[in-house]
């Protein structure tokens, strides 16, 4: 959250760049801002207000690798800190980690908040040695459940507020103050609620309301547990390490054990398998998805002066060889489009088809940015003309996420794009954003910064040489990518096919997960894949 002075200064800079977007002679003038930019954004580290349930991600040893603003504020932890710093007792963390190794479900960890209050975090680890997702176990009742309960038994507003207070562990005298009522009146209302609920004690009242809350959360779509319903997941993937001839690669595998082989080139922000719907849909549809972490992300280093697209494709082919997979469908998210196109061009015998959703096309001319929100045009201009400025913008943005939590991601990434911001703010997107940030931050944003440059390069000469079926998907609500440019890309490819998706933005991988994977399955079957079992 910026101060008004800092925001005004930043907007002034954006305004200057915007006014010079079509004036190449302004580059020298704008270059002077390179040294001023950190000063402009000095106040980015001001804390955010509490945003709800604490959520964080840790590695297998308990070191924090991602957290939201509520966790940063409530626990006082930062990236790289240990859960041992907040564990209620010295033995709590070792016991928690030991329990996770042998457990098939979630395990609680008792911690102390900055205010000295004890609190439980519910931790899950889907794979041995993988990430640990933790979510705050809240004492209260979620508002949607409270609203439905109040409607079902005719609670008046003050009774609903009273019940919420009881569920949150507040004493009667504190609730009375909050409701501006006498304690005797509040106690009479408690009896009224008990009568409406058909229970005989306050303990029965709270346990019944809690059971209803738990059942409600468990029956929500994609919500196998209370943690999942609030943006974390019980199915968060870990990466195994693959030694390629060009260095170590983080490798993710999920889906059906004997499924149709799919190679995923991940994008810049949507993670790999952190999105619960992606993993569930892959298993249900019979897909076996393998996703290498691209150079500059996660465990995969991006050496100085290395060409990331060529490096990633070489590593991907070695992964396929190691798995014994001769042919695959390639799924590409966002800038993964560029990587998928390269692989399809150099190894058409290995790629039966590509599905790019959302598609990131080549940057053809400056006119292509005309419909983008101002700050996206600024980023595109900076990436093309002042890559040093773009690197600073990206670095500051990642640092802001590290300090303030993933809640700032929708605004940072999709400023001016209301549809995509709302999509990324949905609870079910939280785990994907957590994972996406961790992948970028693990290499200090090296891959992310390079992605910003790749996004703004013209690679049409390469696209025309891609001979395999290439399905280019674009959401009608997408303001960050030109629809015309995606259509041109599909038209330029010998077997390119454009598809417009109604009610979708650039966040297609999160909003239309099952639709995308059904199409992957269809094109794979059409090419004859999936008829023989493969081992995932």
From TrEMBL:
Pfam families: Abhydrolase_1, GerE
Keywords: Hydrolase
SMART domains: HTH_LUXR
Domain HTH luxR-type: 152-209
Keyword Hydrolase: yes
Record-linked CDD domains: LuxR_C_like (cd06170)
Biological process per Gene Ontology, one example term: regulation of DNA-templated transcription
Superkingdom of origin organism: Bacteria
Transferase listed as a keyword: no
Gene Ontology terms, MF aspect: DNA binding; hydrolase activity
Protein name in the entry: Alpha/beta fold hydrolase
